[in-house]
Design goal:
Order of helices and strands: EHEEHEEHHEEEHEHHHHEEHHH
Largest sheet: 8 strands, mixed
Number of strands: 11
Shape: globular
Strand order of the largest sheet: 3-2-5-6-7-8-1-9
Number of domains: 2
Bound molecules: iron/sulfur cluster
Helix content: 25-40%
Distance between the termini: 48 Å
Strand content: 15-25%
């Protein structure tokens, strides 16, 4: 299907259409911008840089009930299937990140909790126009208008949006929108190309990732890891806010006789993550844990799935309380390995 155009006076009608499913958009929760369900059209504001919490939190919630039970009982009460959802305003890096999380949750076994939600969700992207100071998506295979993982991409042209349908879900949405949309003209597509190119030119940080998996292997015992991890507090912010991080723990919660088994986010930056019952810990210090985080993204995931598990969103850099910077670490890896 060719591109469509939505003028901004029709935007409210488009939101009404999307609201037939459960609609999530970036919204402030306290001081944190994150994806949350829309109660009123007024909550939809597509002027933002990027959410602090990535949209993976909708499909892979921080705490998710797997099933409920009663103490002494044998019945598992599994939550009802996911409702149909639309995520509007997903940045292209975060949509690419979902394709990385998909690989993990459909690897050795299919994870029904994640995959059913993924199937029931339509992802509408919004091309970036003002990349953040620590964005480096263009170094890791993405870009401000990357379409990977999206069903529909919106580009803000000022007086309206250009809509590029990318999948059957995206095409269906455009068909359902009917007269709200018009066919995009050649100059609309050119204007969108210009917006995308200008945004890419505003990205100031970059890294040449060629050969990094091998370089990481060569530097396994390098003193570099102690140096780059000395300041780490082990807070886990870099992993919790990373759109591709997917580690979890399974925990039981009891209230009286009622219990629930839940899946909760976990982090390889926590000491307890690898602590064995015997007391042995194969990653006993921040050195090993930082080395693991970088290797997982730039070496192990490449070996297992053929892709880097970092989309260059910059969140781990923006949110580290002690300014640990994955790009600086990678630059040192490149330099040391020469
Ligand atoms: S490692 Fe950092 S820059 Fe890369 S995707 Fe995760 S949070 Fe973003
Ligand atoms: S955000 Fe910074 S301090 Fe916290 S665990 Fe990550 S690297 Fe360490």
């Amino acid at each position: 299907m060719d591109s469509k155009k939505l003028t901004k006076d029709k935007f409210g009608g488009f939101i009404d259409l999307l609201s037939k499913q459960k609609l999530y958009v970036p919204q402030m929760a306290g001081e944190t911008l994150r994806f949350a369900p829309v109660d009123s059209k007024d909550e939809v504001n597509l002027v933002f840089s990027n959410t602090a919490v990535p949209p993976k939190s909708v499909l892979f919630p921080q705490t998710e009930t797997l099933y409920e039970y009663e103490a002494g009982g044998t019945e598992m009460i599994i939550p009802e299937g996911p409702e149909e959802k639309v995520l509007l305003g997903v940045r292209p890096c975060d949509a690419r990140a979902l394709t990385i999380v998909d690989k993990l949750f459909s690897w050795d076994i299919d994870d029904p909790y994640y995959l059913k939600k993924r199937e029931a969700t339509t992802i509408i992207g919004l091309a970036c126009q003002e990349p953040g100071i620590n964005c480096f998506c263009t170094s890791v295979g993405g870009g401000p208008a990357s379409t990977e993982g999206l069903d529909l991409l919106l580009t803000d042209l000022g007086e309206g949006y250009l809509l590029q349908p990318l999948t059957e879900k995206g095409e269906k949405l455009c068909q359902d929108a009917g007269e709200l949309l018009v066919d995009a003209a050649g100059e609309d597509n050119q204007a969108a190309d210009k917006v995308h190119q200008e945004a890419a030119e505003k990205i100031v940080r970059n890294i040449n990732v060629d050969g990094i998996p091998q370089k990481l292997e060569d530097l396994w015992e390098s003193p570099l890891w102690k140096k780059v991890s000395d300041a780490c507090l082990g807070c886990g912010a870099c992993t919790f806010l990373c759109p591709t991080c997917h580690c979890f723990d399974i925990q039981d919660e009891m209230e009286g006789f009622e219990g629930r088994r839940c899946r909760v986010w976990d982090s390889c930056m926590f000491k307890e993550y690898t602590l064995h019952t015997s007391g042995h810990n194969p990653r006993p210090t921040r050195r090993e844990r930082t080395r693991n985080r970088v290797n997982h993204k730039y070496s192990y995931f490449v070996k297992n799935f053929g892709t880097i598990a970092c989309v260059g969103c910059g969140r781990c850099i923006n949110n580290c309380p002690v300014n640990i910077d994955i790009l600086d670490i990678l630059s040192q890896v490149v330099k040391e390995a020469l």
